[in-house]
Amino acid sequence: MPSVRCADKRHRLGNVTRLLANSAIMESHRWCDKVQDAYSLRCAPQVHGASRDLLDYVEYTITTELNAATDNPLVLVEDEMLVSAGNFHGQPLAFALDALAMAVSELANISERRVERLVNPNLSDGLPAFLTTDGGLNSGFMIPQYVAASLVSENKSLCHPASVDSIPTSAGQEDHVSMGNASALKAWQVVANSEHALAIELLAASQAVEFLAPLEPGRGAAATHEFVRSLSPRLRDDRPLGPDIEAVAGRDPRRVAARRRRSRSGGARVSSPRRLKWGVPEQPPPKHPYRDTLIIYAAFAALIVVVAWLTGGGVARAVAIAVLFYVVASAWSLSRWRNKLREEAERAREERP
């Protein structure tokens, strides 16, 4: 690696290289016609490295302040002195918390751009639109990308630094304040938004890599895919992805339960029952659990009409009977399907820790 920028960026790039080691997907692109990837892919080590540099500064500052004497006055027992000083001022923490918001926000910002490249068929190099094989009937990851875009847009507003503001209080005695509390509240929200944006990328990437089977991802990507699938099954037909996003973001009891299972099994990874077996592409299941039944109902209704026409009977009456039969039978099947979904949801809630 040439000595460009700084050693820290080379270290970040080394992390990416190790995660992609032994990737058959990468190897399949060795002789492709594309000259360069977009910045969100090609410059990820530089952007991530810059954010991690800021996070190192945040950690250093917070550690220093936690171990500092910030009382006022300072009581120096050995010297028998009381010293009025300004060590209590929150400016160092305010700066650090504003920097934290900016650093984390950029991780989410570049992540959302990668999600866009996964769901956009004009940018995804052959992946299905919105990562679903049933576009039109299912929206796939279209809505999660909306969510990621809204989260990073909110972050941009929250990243205006509060630490550059000040308003005097206490009759002018406290005439310059850090506004660090506002910095902390904004950083808290930015971190939460970014956790969810990154969780959406992990879910979308896990979905996308399964469309590339039998090509295998690198070691790190495969481990990440397995972990995501321990929390969230593959998206086939549309379903609410809110619980999945919460789980991957670390804000759901399922993630805690997964950690407990790994610890009980000696640290082994938890395999999902629906985990993709590389080299054996999965076949998509039926689009609807009663689809075949509804088709049979439709065929039977059509048969009633045909028989009535061939026998010279009342075709209009036969059509009315056939339509009534199809509507009633379909409503009965759909009712069974909804009841089954409700039972599964209640069972899942009961199984949660």
β-strand amount: under 5%
Q: What's the number of extended β-strand segments?
A: 2
Number of helices: 12
Number of self-contained structural domains: 2
Order of helices and strands: HHHHEEHHHHHHHH
Mean pLDDT: 82
- Looking at CATH, which topology of the largest domain would you report? Fumarase C, Chain A, domain 2
Biggest sheet: strand arrangement:
1-2
As residue ranges, the low-confidence spans are 267-287
Task: Please name the defining characteristics of this protein.
two-stranded antiparallel sheet; single chain; mainly alpha; elongated; 60% helix; Fumarase C, Chain A, domain 2; 353 residues
Q: What does the model show?
A:
This protein has helices spanning 7-19, 24-28, 39-42, 44-66, 91-119, 142-158, 180-210, 219-231, 242-248, 253-264, 291-310, 315-351; strands at residues 74-76, 81-83. It is mainly alpha-helical and 353 residues long. The protein folds into 2 domains: 7-69 and 85-166 and 178-264, Fumarase C, Chain A, domain 2 (Up-down Bundle), CATH 1.20.200.10; 291-351. Strands 1-2 form a two-stranded antiparallel ribbon. Strand 1 and strand 2 (81-83) form a beta hairpin. Helix 1 crosses helix 4 (44-66), helix 4 (44-66) packs antiparallel against helix 5 and helix 7 packs across helix 9. The longest helix has 37 residues, at 315-351.
